[in-house]
Amino acid sequence: MNKQPTFSNKEQRKIIIRLLIYIKPYKKEVSIALFLLFLTVIGDVLGPYIIKVFLDDHLAINHFELKSILFLAISYLIIQLLNVIFSYFQLVKFQEIALKIIQQLRIDVFKKIHQLGMRYFDDTPAGTIVSRATNDTEAIKELFISVLSSFVQAAFLIIGVYVAMFLLNPMLAIFALVLLPLIFLVIHFYRKHSSVVYMTMREKLSLLNAKLAETLSGMGIVQTFRQEQRFNDEFDEINNEHFISMMDNTKLNSILLRPVIDLIYFTAVVIILFYFGITSFKTAIEVGVIFVFITYISRFFEPINQVMERLALYQQAVVAASRVFKLLDETEIEPKQMDVTDDIQSGLIEFKNVTFSYDGKTDVLKNISFTVNPGETVALVGHTGSGKSSIINLLMRFYEFEQGEILIDGKSIKSYSKNVLRKKIGLVLQDPFLFYGTIKTNIALFNTDLTDKDIQAAAQFVQADEFIEQLPNKYEQKVTERGSTFSSGQKQLIAFARTIATNPKVLVLDEATASIDTETEVAIQQSLEKMRKGRTTIAIAHRLSTIQDADQILVLHLGEIVERGTHQELLAQKGLYHKMYLLQNGIVE
Prior knowledge:
The protein is α/β, with parallel strands linked by helices. The chain is about 65% helix and about 10% strand.
């Protein structure tokens, strides 16, 4: 097991200060909650004193004046009743503030996830990201609900108890003050050692989520290739590591939390009783004073015990917050887009000497140059790993490139806003993704500018209406997660309709017909011909039969364009394209 990093006090303070910034919008609510908390502390201090007065002024001397006793009894009951009311409202208020803060934090995390570049998702498992947005933010919630309120209450109560003890017996109050350094030493020792344990716990929980997400998303493959036992073993290994880290946490808490503080408390009680015992040989000791001191010591240690118990939540929250802030501070965001008014008019695309690497070491594209004139169709072909999809990724600005230029209508692609690029460039992927909802919402993608007629027209244009009209609810037919109830061809047709509905100027087809059967392909090729008219089209294709009518075909190999021309020109060259064509058609020379 790798050793997890620890947090210094300075780093923990930075994290807490950053979390406290989220309280700023709720200053009024926090002030109300703190005032109610202050009132409950006053009640906690006054209650024992009233009992002390009853013991010393009435019970000890057999002085039972009804009026005075009733006044004490009623006062005590009123204080306890008000304490219950104030405690209720301050707890509700703290909970409300905490929930609002976590709500905002989750919004920030979810928003940040959508701003992250594709490189981040290439390197980070989906389950780990989910863990940041759910488990880690949930742990932070406990910081605001339990920890901060307990810390503030403990501070108020300790101050109140100290003031009361100094008024009653300064010597014993000073003795109680001496206990604080010992308690702070225990707290410091616990924080130092628990940070390692909690970091390990959060990491192992994140790995559990990642493994679970991977298994669920690939369940078909897992069962097809009978990999259930292997995945069970891997999950069991991670789960066991998480169990070990949880046990380490349990052992640490069992030693350093309540047991140690209770030991200090019992020692303090024995010393106080010993002090009163020695003092009683010289002067009379009031029973009420003994009672109130023991009670105050108990009240003094009660919040400290609560703080110690909350330290576990505090450490979890600090570790969780560090992981959340690491995501929020992630610099691997989408390529910067300039907020300009330039629009794509004709769709002229130019790649000029573009070189690109995903990892900064190995170039997947090397000195790529080509031009796609408005209305033309350019096809990209080549073996797996030749760089076809990388060209699409750069054109869609999923990744940033440093060497070369990509121009649209003579202007750098970096000068267009993201909204313009996404609106004017229509992308259809090999594996279409459908969202939970209806066919209608999946075509429109909540674009309020599209009417029902526009949606139906788009579906008719790509001949998706033929199967949609046969469904029980037609365009309102429910779509489950990832569109699992539809065939691959049907999902692809819906994706085509989604793209056409936005009326893009540039079409990007990434093996768009790969998942469609032969009969459907014939029909959709007719639609594609209509789609390409008046639009610049870049199409990735493995089946060469689907791009024979392209104005230009670029043949890529190991990140370079090795051949270019029309279908007939490339066949005449008898190069790589010619070999691919013969192979696909089963022709042996």
